[in-house]
Amino acid sequence: MKQELLKKFEEVFGSTEGANVYFAPGRVNLIGEHTDYNGGHVFPCALTIGTYAVARLRNDDKLCLYSMNFEESGIGESTLSEIENKTAGDWRNYPKGIIWAFGQKGFKVDKGMDILYYGNIPNGSGLSSSASIEVLTGFILKQLFGFDVTNQDLALIGQFSENQYNGVNCGIMDQFAIAMGKKDSAIFLDTADLSYEYAPIALDGAKIVILNTNKKRGLGDSKYNERRSECESALASLQTKLNIKSLGELSEEEFEANKSLIGDEVKIRRAKHAVYENQRTIKAVKALQDKDIELFGKLMIASHESLRDDYEVTGIELDTLVAEALKQEGVIGARMTGAGFGGCAVSIVRTECVDKFIENVGKAYEEKIGYAADFYVVEIGDGPAVL
Ligand code: GLA
Question: CA-CA to 290 of 20 to 30 Å: which in 20, 25, 164, 284?
Fold first, then answer.
């Protein structure tokens, strides 16, 4: 892979002098969905698929960005002084947003760069291809300019750029999972204070299988920001009586006793999901520590039902994949993962049943939805690296 990337870089930029190769993973969230902007817990892990880049400094202030995934758009050339100018729908808004965000945080990028990107995460599939580009670009800036930032800072700068530059009000989960990824472990993160623990994922005799609906979605035009404001409004109503900072502070009982304060039926369901999903995540990590993988699977299923019925972010494609997955032999649990509205589902399946699982679910999905799903048997990998 490294050699191929260097070869391509040479083709595009003329030589490989001064260039290094970098990688940042994608992520999948095992449980704890739409909890990260509600002060709750999440349980994602980094993947061995992700985004690669070859990068070097230039002696002028030109920024030359090329993606092997969008070869038709060629080398995008701009200067550092026009970093604030965005082009709607251009993938370069992600790396440019990071350079802008570093500047906002006092880290001045004062030299241009040539960067070639290549991602093997399916775009827009809910496996965080954008957060992967963001963390990767931050990691490259850290290496090339010697900025004194930790990997956790890279996550926060990535989120800042996504919120402020790209206009998506996302939480911290994706960038954190990618920047802090650890091989064979998921990250149990409390988004209220960013305290976290690594939990080894030893799925004896089982695999993580990701199911891609192949329904494209973009977070910016989805109902993501709307869900977030519904939760904020529910929280504000609860705060008229309760002294809480986020929905993540509530137990199920406290929520039930006070939910009438919210008034609106839809907002009650949104807040209910946030509260119950957070508690489910805590229970799921405990189940894993107790080696009770069956209970972990049941909690995954309950998570999907809540995202479908109360949070309403699934849709026919994700619901079909999960329903068909749950009919199969050897399935331990399945649920949508990421923002929803299309994208991917994640499942845990007994190793000896994986082939049949993929065949059966694939067939049923195509019959119902009219086009094929994709399946990936994934491994949990490390965070960003120089290759
Ligand atoms: C997207 C966002 C995350 C998180 C998930 C839903 O992936 O980027 O911050 O909110 O959706 O859990």
Answer: 25
| Angstrom distance (rounded) from CA 334 to CA 51 | 26
Residues with CB under 6 A from ligand 1: 33-34, 36-37, 170-171, 173-174, 338-339
The verdict on whether 174 is a catalytic residue reads yes
Digit-coded pLDDT (tens) for 204-260: 899 999 999 999 665 545 688 899 999 999 999 999 999 999 999 999 999 999 999
Helix axis angle for 265-289 and 224-238, nearest 10°, is: 100
Which structural domains are found in the chain, ordered by start? 2-200 (3.30.230.10)
- The residue type found at 357 is F
Q: Tell whether the torsion through CA atoms of 167, 197, 51 and 278 is positive or negative.
A: negative
Angstrom distance (rounded) from CA 228 to CA 235: 11
Protein residue whose Cα sits closest to atom 1 of ligand 1: 339
Note whether 53 and 69 are within 8 A (CB): no
Nearest to 313 by CA among 348, 288, 338, 349: 338
The phi and psi torsions of 255 (rounded to 5 degrees) equal -65, -50
Which of 192, 171, 170 has its CA nearest to residue 39?
Answer: 192
Structure tokens that stand for 246 in this block = 């986020």
What are the DSSP E strand ranges found in 327-373? 331-337, 344-350
For residues 10-30, average pLDDT: 97
Whole-model pTM? Answer: 0.96
Separation CA 342–CA 91 (nearest Å) = 20
Q: What is the DSSP letter of 335?
A: E
- Exactly one of 36, 114, 174, 190 is catalytic; which is it? 174
CA distances from 49 to 27, 43, 109 (A): 8, 18, 28
